[in-house]
């Protein structure tokens, strides 16, 4: 069986389980379950701390895992990202009191407090900055006030909590993170195992596509078909079928979900009618 690590709690857990369910895999019913077997799909799921998943996968004990890109890099584990999943997005930034630093080069000789020592130490080293890094498990904003560090590095969403602490972000982002599927670097698997891994990835990719697109159907006059097709080119091309009323055709195409309303407006303007959108629950490209 394919052995897969899944986050057992935190912001990664719920969305990961939901995606796996949409991809057709069984998921645990109780949060206390640490392992379940999905015999129909020949998969075994292990529910682990998100920070530990990269370590387990790099050891070769588990075939693949779902974790955050930030946790993968911070772990220093011998594992690599093979598919971004588009949820649990975050941005890592440096922050400090106004007037302390304006750019990365100003950090030389300073101390940086963070919960992600691996990420920050690597970023500083990659940029040739000689600064000390102090590891804290949380609430890093207080490190500056208490004199533990001059600068912090943390996840920044709106920046409200930093402003409330009298801090401001500076410099370019350290990194952008999201949930990812990971695998041991240079994993050497037999043909059967590799086929299962690729099937798993195709299923998740199908979920990502299904979430990104909607199916659009509409009727239009034949003389407006070229304009309509230009608005809804689909993936290869749209499906066009003649209607019983002469001079009319029915068109079906996948369109980006975020652009669906604008496309419907444009289609209506050129005379298309009976314009419908429906959700896509699964997809293979």
UniProtKB/TrEMBL annotation:
Keyword Oxidoreductase tagged: no
Pathway connected to this protein: Amino-acid biosynthesis; L-histidine biosynthesis; L-histidine from 5-phospho-alpha-D-ribose 1-diphosphate: step 1/9
Domain ATP phosphoribosyltransferase catalytic as annotated: residue spans: 49-206
GO biological process, one term: L-histidine biosynthetic process
Family: Belongs to the ATP phosphoribosyltransferase family. Long subfamily.
Cited NCBIfam families: hisG, HisG_C-term
Protein name in the entry: ATP phosphoribosyltransferase
């Amino acid at each position: 069986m394919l052995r897969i690590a899944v986050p057992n709690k935190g912001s990664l857990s719920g969305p990961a389980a939901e995606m796996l369910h949409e991809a057709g895999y069984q998921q645990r019913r109780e949060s206390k379950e640490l392992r379940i077997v999905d015999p129909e799909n020949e998969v075994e799921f292990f529910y682990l701390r998100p920070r530990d998943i990269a370590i387990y996968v790099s050891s070769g004990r588990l075939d693949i895992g779902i974790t955050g890109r930030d946790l993968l890099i911070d772990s220093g584990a011998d594992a690599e990202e093979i598919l971004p999943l588009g949820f649990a997005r975050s941005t890592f930034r440096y922050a400090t009191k106004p007037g302390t630093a304006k750019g990365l080069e100003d950090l030389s000789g300073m101390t940086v407090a963070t919960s992600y020592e691996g990420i920050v130490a690597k970023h500083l080293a990659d940029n040739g900055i000689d600064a000390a890094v102090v590891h804290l498990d949380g609430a890093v904003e207080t490190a500056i006030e208490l004199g533990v560090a001059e600068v912090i590095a943390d996840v920044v969403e709106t920046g409200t909590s930093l402003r409330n602490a009298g801090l401001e972000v500076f410099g370019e982002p350290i990194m952008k993170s999201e949930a990812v599927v990971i695998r041991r670097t240079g994993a050497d698997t037999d043909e059967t195992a590799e086929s299962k891994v690729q099937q798993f990835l195709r299923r998740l990719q199908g979920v990502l596509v299904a979430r990104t697109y909607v199916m659009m159907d509409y009727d239009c006059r034949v003389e407006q078909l070229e304009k309509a097709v230009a608005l809804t080119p689909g993936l290869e091309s749209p499906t066009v079928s003649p209607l019983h009323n002469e001079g009319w055709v029915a068109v079906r195409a996948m369109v980006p979900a975020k652009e669906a309303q604008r496309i419907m407006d444009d289609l209506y303007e050129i005379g298309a009618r009976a314009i419908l959108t429906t959700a896509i629950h699964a997809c293979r490209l």
